[in-house]
Amino acid sequence: MAAVLWSNHGYEDQSKLTTNIHERAVGYYTLHFAGLFNLPFPLRFAFGNGVSQIMLELAAHILDIAENSVRAGARLIEIDIEEDTAKNTLSIKIIDDGQGMKQEEIEKVLDPFYTTKTVRRVGLGLPLLADASQRSGGSLQLESEKGKGTTVKATFGLSHVDRQPMGNIVSTLIILIAGNSDVDFFYKYRHNDRQFKLDTREIRKEIMDVPINHPEILKYIRGVLEEGFSEIKPEA
Ligand SMILES: Nc1ncnc2c1ncn2[C@@H]1O[C@H](COP(=O)(O)OP(=O)(O)O)[C@@H](O)[C@H]1O
Ligand SMILES: [Mg+2]
Q1: Which of 156, 154, 133 has its CA nearest to residue 22?
Q2: CA distance linking residue 224 with residue 228, whole number of Å
Q3: How far apart are CA 14 and CA 6, in angstroms?
Q4: Which of 1, 51, 108, 109 for a ligand 1 pocket mutation test, highest count of atoms within 8 Å of Cβ?
Q5: In the structure, which protein residues have their CB atom closer than 6 angstroms to any atom of ligand 1?
Q6: Residue ranges of the domains in the chain?
Q7: Which fold has domain 2-232?
Q8: pLDDT for the residue 115
Q9: Closest residue (by CA) to atom 27 of ligand 1?
Q10: Which pLDDT score, from 0 to 100, does residue 120 have?
Q11: How would you classify the pairing of strands 2-7 and 76-84?
């Protein structure tokens, strides 16, 4: 299994890589935001809002990383969030069974200038998530194997002042399920010793022929998620 650890606490050459990528990411934004001023006002407004949402909430990062998994042809995407107050850590893991990446791709994707899409969205999913985790004293780990799948794991300092808030994780999951009705999602949220799970494979068994993105089913799933959250009382 090919793996890259992109971390502040990593080897010396890795931290050099991190700084370098960060500087280039800042350069990228400066370049692209300069271009925004030529846009008509309403468009500039919409675009600007989208960018700040992507950068300010963990739920938006999760959406972007899970969308990568969808594009990679995943049939099952596991989203695993764990909060540990004693260790003061928050970890977010996204595991997929999609097409995976070769070692050289893994190295390139942490570079903000790289994409396989012809037009790079402002998302910059992986570099932005790496940056967000490092700002809170954490790190990003990317493991992938061609033909097998990909695991993205980001850790954060739970109570770190620069740790981004979770944001609306329930709506994020609903968007993912509603927009990708042929993909299964296994969602786990643990807060210390309390945890809840939601598995669309289980839900599918119960609803039989009703599509998972039927409005009533989505409403039911939203209810289950909201109840799960209120029971475990997460901090993020
Ligand atoms: N889960 C994944 N499986 C396979 N390839 C991936 C996965 N996540 C990311 N990639 C590859 O890494 C590239 C960069 O991802 P990302 O940083 O989110 O930027 P973008 O999605 O805008 O291209 C993707 O275009 C894709 O080629
Ligand atoms: Mg992406």
Answers
A1: 133
A2: 6
A3: 7
A4: 109
A5: 64, 68-69, 72, 96, 98-101, 109, 115-117, 120-121, 123-127, 150
A6: 2-232
A7: Heat Shock Protein 90 (3.30.565)
A8: 62
A9: 116
A10: 52
A11: unpaired
Q: How far is the CA of 106 from the centre of ligand 1 (A)?
A: 9
Centre of ligand 1 from the C-alpha of residue 225, in Å? 27
Q: Is the pLDDT of residue 179 over 90?
A: yes
| Confidence at 43, pLDDT banded by 50, 70, 90 | very low
Which of ligand 1's atoms lies nearest the C-alpha of 96?
1
Determine the Cα–Cα distance for residues 56 and 129; give it in Å rounded to an integer: 11
Residue 60 · residue 124 · CB < 8 Å: no
Choose one of 6, 115, 146 to mutate for the ligand 1 pocket test, by most ligand atoms within 8 angstroms of C-beta.
115
Q: What are phi and psi of 165, to 5 degrees?
A: -70, 160
- Selected residue with higher pLDDT from 223 and 123: 223
* Half-sphere exposure (Cβ direction) of 142: Cα atoms closer than 13 Å: 24
Other beta carbons within 10 Å of 67: 18
pTM of the model: 0.78
- Taking 90 as the threshold, does the pLDDT of residue 55 lie above it? no
Q: Which residues contact 151 (CB under 8 A, 6 or more apart)?
A: 93, 94, 95, 96, 141, 142, 143, 144
HSE at residue 178, side-chain half, CA atoms within 13 A, is: 16
Residue 33: its pLDDT value, please?
40
